[in-house]
């Protein structure tokens, strides 16, 4: 209703969170295939890239969670056509903008992350030009408990996560993050090197994917020429 305050996060199961994350991701990255069929959802939930943890879900598990998400008004069934399709309702329920929903989706798909990791990964769905842009998005989400900082954000390597964890699950994440903060500090140069290596690995993976695509296209062109 007009003027009604947007909802705040309530606990969701791991499978429910994965389904919502996949629906948002595919709507943003491959809109031509959205809303998703049940088969496409199974493939997306069990995808080996951009997922943590990796899962091997069956149709019946996803179907059961879809019914639960319908009751929570977070998913709707799209009728018409040869197969049923599914869409998320996070825009409507939580009044999110495009940057906010990209951040939420990335956290749903991968769980706790540092600001640097989150900015880079969420940018594949919606550009986040720098950390200050991300922090502005996080502030608004944290005010509504849709995002939670596991330790004070001023701490080096601090992680944030989504607000859809059950209380005991969230407390476990906080304890692990706090324990990690008690370990001896990594020297700044080493920390920068570690972050740089992560960036380098992701860039190499992206380049390898591009090379594979170009090689495939070249092989196809050569085949046609012959």
Q: What this model shows, in words?
A:
The protein has 226 residues and is mainly alpha-helical. 57% of the residues lie in helices and 8% in strands. It has helices at residues 14-29, 38-45, 59-71, 90-94, 98-110, 115-122, 131-143, 167-181, 188-225; strands at residues 36-37, 75-78, 85-88, 113-114, 147-149, 159-162. The strands form two sheets. It has a three-stranded antiparallel sheet with strand order 1-3-2. A three-stranded antiparallel sheet has the order 4-6-5. Helix 1 crosses helix 5 (98-110) and helix 5 packs across helix 6 (115-122). The model is unreliable at 183-194 and 222-226 (pLDDT under 50).
Question: Descriptors for this entry?
Answer:
mainly alpha; Arc Repressor Mutant, subunit A; 3 domains; 3-stranded antiparallel beta sheet; 8% strand
